[in-house]
Amino acid sequence: MRHTGALLCLGAASVAYAASDSPRPRGVGPEFAKFYKDSNAFTCISNPSITLLPSQVNDDYCDCPDGSDEPGTAACAHLSTLSPSTPANVAAHDSVNATIVLPGFYCKNKGHQPSYLHFGNVNDGVCDYELCCDGSDEWEGVGGVKCEDRCKEIGKEWRKMDEARQRSMGNAVKRRKELVTEAGRLRKEVEDRVQTLHTQIQGAEKHVADLERELEDVQRREKGKVVKGNVGEKAGKLGVLVGLARQRIDELKENLIRTKGERNSAKERMEELEAILSTFKEEYNPNFNDEGVKRAVRAWENYVAKDKPTVGDAAHDRDIDEIVKSDEENGINWDEYTGQEEESDVDLLYDFEAYLPVPFRTWLDQKLRDLRIMLVENGILADLSTDSSGSEPKAVAEARNRLSAAQDELKNAQNGLNSHNEDLNKDYGPSDVFRALKDTCISTDSGEYTYELCFMGRTTQKPKKGGGHTNMGSYNRLETIHVDEDLPADGRGLGKGDRIAMKHEGGQHCWNGPNRSTTVVLACAEKEEIWKIVEEEKCVYRMEVGTPAVCGLDGNGSGNGGGDGEAKKSPRDEL
Amino acid sequence: MVKHENFKTCDQSGFCRRNRAYADTASSVSSWDSPYRLDSASIAFKDGKLTGTILKSVANSDHAVRLPVTITFLESGTARVTVDEEKRQKGEIELRHDSKAKKERYNEVEDWVIVGGTQVSKGAAVSKGEAGSTKVVYGPGSKFEAVITHAPFGIEFRRDGEVQIKLNERGLLNMEHWRAKVDKPAEEKKEGEEAVVEEASKEVTEDESTWWEETFGGNTDSKPRGPESVALDITFPGYEHVVGLAEHAGPLSLRQTRGGDDSYTEPYRFYNADVFEYEMDSPMTLYGSIPFMQAVKKDSVVGVFWMNAAETWVDIVKGKTSANPLSLGIGSQTTTQTHWFSESGLLDVFVFLGPTPHDVMKSYSELTGGSQLPAEFSLGAHQCRWNYVTDEDVKDVDRKMDKHRIPYDVIWLDIEYTDGKKYFTWDPDTFPDPLGMQKQLDEHDRKLVAIIDPHIKNEANYWVVDELKSKDLAVHNKDDNIYEGWCWPGSSYWIDAFGANARKWWATLFQYTKFPSSAPNLWLWNDMNEPSVFNGPETTMPKDNLHSGNWEHRDVHNLNGMTLVNATYEGLLARSKEEEKAGGRRPFVLTRSFFAGSQRMGAMWTGDNQAEWSHLKASIPMVLSMGASGFPFAGADIGGFFGNPSKELLTRWYQAGAFYPFSRAHAHIDTRRREPYLAGEPYTGIITQAQRLRYSLLPSWYTAFYHASESGTPVVKPMYFAFPGDEKAFAIDDQFLLGSTGLLAKPVTEEGATSVDIYLSDKEKYFDYFDYTVYSGPGHVTVQAPLDRIPLIMRAGHIFPRRDRPRRSSGLMKFDPFTLVLVLGDSGDAEGDLYLDDGESFEYQDGAYIHRKFHYDAATQSLSSEDLSTPGKKTKAYLKAMEKVRVEKVVIVNAPVSWKSKTEVELAEEGGSASGKRRVPMSWQEEGSGKANWAIVRDPGVGIGKGWSITFD
User: Fold this and answer.
1) Buried b (16+ CB within 10 A) or exposed e, B32-55
2) Residue B240: helix, strand or coil by DSSP?
3) Chain B residues with CB inside 8 Å of A287's CB?
4) Are strands B133-138 and A105-107 parallel, antiparallel or unpaired?
5) What is the mean pLDDT of residues B594-616?
6) Largest CB tally within 10 Å, which of B47, B593, B685, B801?
7) Does the residue B215 lie in any domain?
8) In chain B, how long is the greatest CA-to-CA distance?
9) What total of structural domains would you count in chain B?
10) Do B393 and A534 make contact, defined as CB atoms within 8 angstroms?
């Protein structure tokens, strides 16, 4: 049922030899028939100097050093580099050519496809229907075994399967074409975007240059203004103070956002660590009586028992979110203060908190000062005492802001360009095909987990019973690996040959082991599907995945080509 | 690294410390007087049994302690000395802490261990001895004598008038008699008097600190019966080597334990325990105990078997003695003195007087049973891992072994296959289709072995634990409630297989109807049966736990593993009515823990070793030591359990493993996958060759196992066993012979080695198995051993059978023809044999087997096959079934040059017509350049079960 390609190929061979159809000794394939024609003597194929009586062919005794006198029995099965050799077993003499020519026991399999079976499987009491559907391998009936001819049904079933497989392969190839087209479209999109970005950047660069000039001009003008006199000095002071406050608020806000980000990532790490420890506590082996481990478990239990600090309390988080909204959203229009140059309400300045929205104000009152101190102490916040730009005139500040906005825009555009260029250079496989699969996720159930693969992303293990997901590695690179697997009847398997594999690395660390990693081996299929997931060794996974994306990539138009001459060749493992 | 702190040293084990101190006192006091004397008036001799009472005098007491003694002389020539204690025997003692424990000394070891050989000697008779002693003459040809000295009590065993073994020669006999605990008031010490008081008390009192209570690792042993140890010194005059005392990780020839070069500091210990990452070359206890020892000197081997299942220690001291002190070493000889002590139970010791190692092993195996004649598949290759994680995984490994043409018979499942470590269940997620898996294996006649341990998960709605509890079949704690401990499943109970009801119940669990999804090709592995208890003292049960019959765990500990295997074995004999009707099938059970007698039930392995060269090296003496201890079906984890072996180590280990009687690859769950096909070339090919070599020699292995089952001979024989006349060979434990095939192997255990030096004991010629290179002894020869070569040589004078056709499993070789290899010396005969049966049933007991002796007679230059079988009612049917199985080839290694021109030999067949001789082709080949010439008889075509002869003349 397996080795489909081989069977076909042998089928062709049998046609070629059909013309010379004379009765051949048992187990001889048509391509070797010519060696067995002489009815007076048999000459060992690799050792023409050794001539035997015809009766010595298939007499269940191995005479030829190449085994060619026993095409239909297991008598020469031991002639193999895999068997221990002794002088009397393998005639290891210089004069002897022991190159084995027969590929195995030839099963005619009338009604199906002929094939070769390992000699060691002949007359061992087992019907090897997979390769010998006609049951001819057990002709001696050892131990009373009888192998009926099942070629009719097996052949029928096989042809049905084969048809489906062909159809499926046809679809797969079609689907791959679509994928390639899609990938091309996606690539074109990126390329277009690159073009646009180039133009944008040129524009932005020009804009920045203009604004730089403007800033210079304004600065020059404002310098003159300051020299002119002290009109609106009071208002100027308020403006300066408001500007200062605004700046400081901005800085605090920025720092708050950053700190929150850091806190969240610390929280994530802590949760991960707690999950690890809790698994550790559950799974550690008390048998080992390892004091270190026991201590760690006890310490963990104490830690769990302790009251948890209220990190990440939801209300608190909402407050922070509120705070980091833009000031306008919070109802502050700084321009109102800086704009009212004629006003000189110093009290207002000192009481400016009263103008802030309620959540901001109360929080600021209670926490902001502490937070600031903490941030400064931890070196997160810069020491503001060195900041001397506070007294900048408004016009200059505005010009500067415009410039900085333009610079940001330019930077964004450049970053965008870089990442798109990177993307264009990234290895998306032959014909860029995996571009079309990017962010496509497929999953399968295996044991107590669901396993997920997101193409060009990560592999994940999710317990069915609930609980945390485990990162099994993020996509790192493509590799080519050699596989040698039996192809199941439905063709959903890796087969034999070189296959594209996606290496996923740097997943969650394994207790007592490495970081999880996954090798995703791809073979041709009609649609994306995970066939098999195995943990090859601790925390090293292998996924066998079907996808049309790799169809025809192994130099074998119809997909895996898993059976490429395999049945024919496999008995030669013995040679 | 082994956690030494988890296991007791002698100093931390009260009775060990006391008995070592006793020995120290005895040797330091010049006029040491053993306080034990046999009351002459009490002596009686009847039916091969001498009975009497030993009186132990006790300081500060007028009443001697009465110790009934029985000395039994058995028909086989074995003598048995049993000493009990009258007060305990009669129950005239009081137990502390209201203990429910039995009052007697444990006297049921023999119920577990002894299965035969107990017919008393009819010829044994008391003969006139010197005054104050009694002499008994016994044994084959009345060549044995036991001279019993009355005061102090002691026995000398003589063979042909020469003393071989002495009991209590050093006066270390010690039976700690029962006494009530006296709570002494704390003495008030007055200044100045202190020294005097201490001096005085020293003389009259013993150190009681370990009599009533002992604490170790946070667990306190309540010791309700107080001190009760038994001890005896046994001396082997003139014997330099002692072997046996399995299981320990050390050399075959046991080391001294007190003083001397290379001495250990601790005695050899027997207290079956789950020793994590055990260390090499150590007398530390391991998983099993066989307190059987052989003493070896030139042309004589004798032995003793200390039948006690409690914690036991053995001290070994060797001393040079000289007939003439002035002769300065000339004629000096080494004497081995041993000192045995057990925590409780009877003093019960068997004495074997040899003189050959065969004699000793035969007598020992008559008593404790021959090793199981295993199901033939179990001699094939076993592929194990903790764990094959799904049923698909198992099937995948199975397919890949076939794909790579690597023969194997058994694939194994460790604990993860269960549903939450509940035995007799399958994990529904990972093993959804156990029957499909077993069916695929069965297609190539392969088997599955699954683990089942004695700890039963304490969890609601688990029928096994429900039955265990409701039927009250679990081990109890000291307060007689069910004992709860911690093991793989977490909180667990332990089946008490000492109870007949518990064993019966356990056996029923294996019925196909009870064990869901179990198929006939499923067999068993009993692990953790020491028992391993993660939170117990020394990783096992508290000693004051109570077993069936209220015996304390202390009394029976070392038997525990065996009781479980007994029950499992019973359960596997027949798992359905049909199987029962058919006479049952030979069970396969692997055990980690064992005792003397466990060899009757299956195989053992050496536990959790490591993927290091040192462990590969140590595995060979350990396996040899198991054979010398009567349990030959032994092996170590191929590849090493912990850690990742290099490809070279893995390859060398598979090569060595092809010569373990039990050949199983195994690996820890944290190790990388290492199935042989993963190694890549050249390693996979070399490993395949090693496996195929094992399979081609299976007929020889099976024959060797047959001999082991019949007469206790080791399957792989240490050099001393094969060459008892060669003193230089006695300590060699890195090379061995396979049965009586004359095949001598010395597996490579050194990294990077390309050759090994093999020691040859005799002048016989030896030939390299793979190229017929000729080696001659005696002395060392160098044998080439590149990575693809196992150092294996064939001794002249032997004939061994092979089956050369590579098959996927042993079951598929059943009807393959045989090759006979006849290895000739330059002169002299050659001999060998073949035992063959269906490899799975008990029908061989009704004669369904073939046992042929092959003999080459040099004088007539003829090879013949003779019948060694005893026909039974199933002989004929079996011979009929094997009718077509023939000898396809006879290989003659070192074939005489005079045969050079021969092209035919004459064959005569049993049952043929009188003139039915026929000519069969033969060819002779010259090898030259240090290699032996050889010849082949082409397809003699004679039935393997038939008589025939081939004449080369």
Assistant:
1) eebbbbbbeeebebeebbbebbbb
2) coil
3) 274, 276, 487, 532, 534, 539
4) unpaired
5) 96
6) B593
7) no
8) 109
9) 3
10) yes
Domains of chain A with bracketed CATH: 1-149 (no CATH), 230-391 (no CATH), 431-574 (2.70.130.10)
- pLDDT-derived band at A548 (thresholds 50, 70, 90) equals very high
The phi, psi pair for B185, rounded to 5°, reads -65, 145
Is the bond into B682 cis (omega within 30 degrees of 0)? Answer: yes
Report DSSP state, residue A352.
G
**What domain range is B155 assigned to?**
36-94+104-178+225-368
ipTM field: 0.90
Residues 388-407 of B with CB under 8 A from A: 389-390, 392-393, 396, 399, 403-405
Position B256 pLDDT exceeds 90: yes
pLDDT at B627: 97
CA distance A462 to chain B (A): 14
Residues 6+ apart with CB under 8 A from A248: A384
Measured CA to CA, the distance from residue B272 to residue B293 in angstroms comes to 18
In the predicted structure, residue A218 carries a pLDDT above the cut 70: yes
User: Are A486 and B770 within 8 A, CB to CB?
Assistant: no
Distance separating alpha carbons of residues B134 and B145, to the nearest angstrom: 10
Does the beta-carbon distance from B403 to A484 stay under 8 Å?
yes
Whether B826 and B689 share a structural domain = no
Residues of A in contact with B404 (CB under 8 A): 573
Could you tell me the CATH number of the domain that includes residue B260?
2.60.40.1760
Over 80: is that where the pLDDT of B321 sits?
A: no
Shared domain for B60 and B169, answered yes or no, is: yes
What's the rounded Cα separation, in Å, for the pair B630 and B597? 8
For residues B358 and B386, state if they share a domain.
no
Which residues from B are below 8 Å from A285, CB to CB?
A: 534
CA end-to-end span of chain A, whole Å? 24
Contact between A395 and A175 (Cβ < 8 Å): no
Residue B766's pLDDT band, with cuts at 50, 70 and 90, is very high
A143 and B685 in contact by Cβ < 8 A? no
Residues of B marked active site are found at: 527, 530, 608
Q: Which of residues 167-206 of B touch A (CB under 8 A)?
A: none
| Closest residue by Cα to residue B180 from B220, B211, B140, B215 | B211
A95 vs B: CB within 8 A? no
E runs forming strands in B443-548 = 447-451, 455-457, 485-487, 490-494, 522-526, 546-547
Quick one: which of A28, A34, A162 has its CA closest to A108?
A28
Q: What is the pLDDT of residue B259?
A: 80
Helix axes B357-368, B698-711, angle to 10 degrees: 70
Distance separating alpha carbons of residues B536 and A56, to the nearest angstrom: 70
What is the tens place of the pLDDT at every residue in A235-264? 566 677 777 787 888 888 888 888 888 888
Q: Which chain B residues touch A60 with a CB distance below 8 Å?
A: 817, 888, 939
**CA-CA-CA-CA torsion for A360, A365, A367, A368, nearest 10 degrees?**
70
| Subunit contact A86:B771, Cβ cutoff 8 A | yes
In tens, the pLDDT along B827-863 reads: 889 999 999 999 999 999 999 999 999 999 999 999 9
Confidence category of residue A381, pLDDT binned at 50, 70, 90: low
B430/A80 CB distance under 8 A: no
Give phi and psi for A332, each to the nearest 5: -105, 125
Would you state the torsion angle of the CA atoms of residues B361, B365, B367, B368, taken in this order, to the nearest 10 degrees? 130
Q: How far is CA B12 from the centre of its chain?
A: 28
Which position has the token pair 């549903």? B419
